Automatic annotation (TrEMBL):
Quaternary context: Homodimer.
Keywords per UniProt: Cell membrane, Cell projection, Cytoplasm, Cytoplasmic vesicle, Decarboxylase, Golgi apparatus, Lipoprotein, Lyase, Membrane, Neurotransmitter biosynthesis, Palmitate, Phosphoprotein, Pyridoxal phosphate, Synapse
PANTHER family: GLUTAMATE DECARBOXYLASE 2 (PTHR45677:SF11), GLUTAMATE DECARBOXYLASE-RELATED (PTHR45677)
Entry GO terms, CC: cytoplasmic vesicle; cytosol; Golgi membrane; presynaptic membrane
InterPro entries: PyrdxlP-dep_de-COase, PyrdxlP-dep_Trfase, PyrdxlP-dep_Trfase_major, Pyridoxal-P_BS
Name of this protein: Glutamate decarboxylase 2
EC number: 4.1.1.15
Domain of life per record: Eukaryota
Subcellular location per the Swiss-Prot or TrEMBL entry: Cytoplasm, Cytosol; Cytoplasmic vesicle; Golgi apparatus membrane; Presynaptic cell membrane
GO biological process: one example: gamma-aminobutyrate shunt
Job of this protein: Catalyzes the production of GABA.
CDD domains xref list: DOPA_deC_like
Main location: cytoplasm
Length: 585
């Protein structure tokens, strides 16, 4: 059992609640608040219970009632080992928790134990002596535990066990040696914000049920548009469930801008549309075309140079070809930070072409948008201010907990016109406040999660300069890795030159292949090296890094760094581990 002394006490009393009505319960809560927050606890209790209900001194005896059932501890030990009233979860179920009558103490005890489980996991996530992953094959996990859903409820004891088991086999994405995806790290302020968001449990469609969150979305999106370079942060935007949906929003709005009748009459009423994006772009552009009925064949892939950047001359050539065939070019999706190479398309040249042919310019900055926070690196997005729309995922380079993706649109009101359906049961026109803050009708979703608060709270905690330092550090670590392996025996770079982003792409060449002639047999054997090393990494649990083929290039490692916890020592460890696991191949 956990005690109030072993973690945080995230509860306050609402007017009319049992806690507000019970002086004993109020004093018990205040004891805990003062123990862990000092003067803030005094202010909190005064705020919640008024001046008449002063917090008692730490260790003072509370009035009979709830405090006797679960006394506050007075020790400084972590974790606390004080004697306390036990709650036997073996005979309790979710129906014994709030809003059950007299469920306050059981609820607080249960949630405290959940918090303890979470805090232990958080601390372990940053401990380099722990595994990144406790890997088991799917059939092993399925056989080892009963994951099936049943008609009868489990006890709270079993529910806590479910929580521990789930985290036991979870990937520690905050671990300093986890490099597998573009989204890594675990920010403490962001985590706290996510907990708060879940506790608030509201929907983003109207101001009346999410007043603060709606205002924070308005403020944050405006700031992001300012950083893109649109005067005064003008325009519109929305937080969506990931970059793929943000990119699809851009396609939807671009199509509506050119052919507004498509909203009512559908694709049959308009000409054959075509979109253009680089051959290294994210697959979501094609997926969006499929979902919108445009078709994947209508997405024309533009050639890239050896660094993965779109070639503007090929873009213009393909636009002219499409027009000659009677197709209507409606969108160019440029990429600021490609998924594999981390390449930045030449946005100024692309903007000139889009202006010349009157085509909507979208910039997929899901991965690279965070560099706008850095004075040292934001030049890589020069020209982004000329885009009609921009995707930017703070849950990637900025380390905001998943999910947090923004679609920014330069023209105000266009998103609303494109998507609104005037649902009268939500968006009544005679409400008593400014209806422009009812943002739900411009979204494709009805139910929309609060994704803004964790970004906003992290931004308040770090400031723009804090994000800048975090991003600059990650890029410096990528350069450190590149410099260590570019001339190191057993490594070959996938492309020449220093990477533009934190993507470092390379082959590890085992000793058995180093003297082989560069032929088909060598490529065939090299193709198997990265998958085997990756599998061994996961089975040992020491680190994780991604690999993939691309075009005519066989499997290579794609190292990406977005985890603020990573250090030079972690990069050194990765190199040593790759060599240890791959030397016998």
């Amino acid at each position: 059992m956990a005690s109030p002394g072993s973690g945080f006490w995230p509860f306050g009393a609402e007017e009319g609640s049992a806690a507000a009505e019970s002086p004993g319960t109020a004093r018990a809560w205040c004891q805990v608040a003062q123990k862990f927050t000092g003067g803030i606890g005094n202010k909190l209790c005064a705020l919640l219970y008024g001046d008449a209900e002063k917090p008692v001194e730490t260790g003072a005896r509370a009035a009979p009632g709830a405090a006797e059932a679960r006394p506050a501890c007075t020790c400084d030990k972590k974790p606390c080992g004080c004697q306390k009233a036990e709650v036997n979860y073996a005979f309790l179920h979710s129906t014994d928790l709030l809003p059950s009558c007299n469920g306050e103490i059981t609820t607080m005890s249960f949630l405290q134990d959940v918090v303890d489980i979470l805090l232990q996991y958080v601390v372990k996530s940053f401990d380099r002596s722990t595994k990144v992953i406790d890997f088991h094959y799917p059939n092993e996990l399925l056989q080892e535990y009963n994951w099936e859903l049943a008609d009868q409820p489990q006890t709270l004891e079993e529910i806590l066990l479910n929580c521990r088991t789930t985290l036991k086999y979870a990937i520690k994405t905050g671990h300093p040696r986890y490099f597998n995806q573009l989204s890594t790290g675990l920010d403490m302020v962001g985590l706290a914000a996510d907990w708060l968001t879940s506790a608030a449990n509201t929907n983003m469609f109207t101001y009346e049920i999410a007043p603060v969150f709606v205002l924070l979305e308005y403020v944050t999106l405006r700031k992001m548009r300012e950083m893109v370079g649109w005067p005064g942060g003008c325009g519109d935007g929305i937080f969506s469930p990931g970059g793929a949906i943000s990119n699809m929003y851009a396609m939807l709005i671009a199509r509506f801008k050119m052919f507004p009748e498509v909203k009512e009459k559908g694709m049959a009423a308009i000409p054959r549309l075509v979109a253009f994006t680089s051959e290294h772009s994210h697959f979501s552009v094609k997926k969006g075309a499929a979902a919108l009925g445009i078709g994947t064949d209508s997405v024309i892939l533009i050639r890239c140079d050896e660094r993965g950047k779109m070639i503007p001359s090929d873009l213009e050539r393909r636009i002219l070809e499409a027009k000659q065939k009677g197709f209507v070019p409606f969108l160019v999706s440029a990429t600021a930070g490609t998924t594999v190479y981390g390449a930045f398309d030449p946005l100024i040249a692309i903007a000139d072409i889009c202006k010349k042919y009157k085509i909507w310019m979208h910039v997929d900055g899901a991965w690279g948008g965070g560099l706008l926070m850095s004075r040292k690196h934001k030049w890589k997005l020069n020209g982004v201010e000329r885009a009609n729309s921009v995707t930017w995922n703070p849950h990637k380079m900025m380390g905001v907990p998943l999910q947090c993706s923004a679609l920014l649109v330069r023209e105000e009101g266009l998103m609303q016109s494109c998507n609104q359906m005037h649902a009268s049961y939500l968006f009544q026109q005679d409400k008593h406040y400014d209806l422009s803050y009812d943002t739900g009708d411009k979204a494709l979703q009805c139910g929309r999660h609060v994704d803004v608060f964790k970004l906003w709270l992290m931004w308040r905690a770090k400031g723009t300069t804090g994000f800048e330092a975090q991003i600059d550090k990650c890029l410096e670590l990528a350069e450190y890795l590149y410099n260590k392996i570019k001339n190191r025996e057993g490594y070959e770079m996938v492309f020449d030159g220093k990477p533009q982003h934190t993507n470092v792409c390379f082959w590890y060449i085992p000793p058995s292949l180093r003297s082989m002639e560069d032929n088909e047999e060598r490529m065939s054997r090299l193709m198997k090296v990265a998958p085997v090393i990756k599998a061994r990494m996961m089975e040992y649990g020491t680190t994780m890094v991604s690999y993939q083929p691309l075009g005519d290039k066989v499997n290579f490692f794609r190292m990406v760094i977005s985890n603020p916890a990573a250090t030079h020592q972690d990069i050194d460890f990765l190199i040593d581990e790759i060599e240890r696991l791959g030397q016998d191949l």
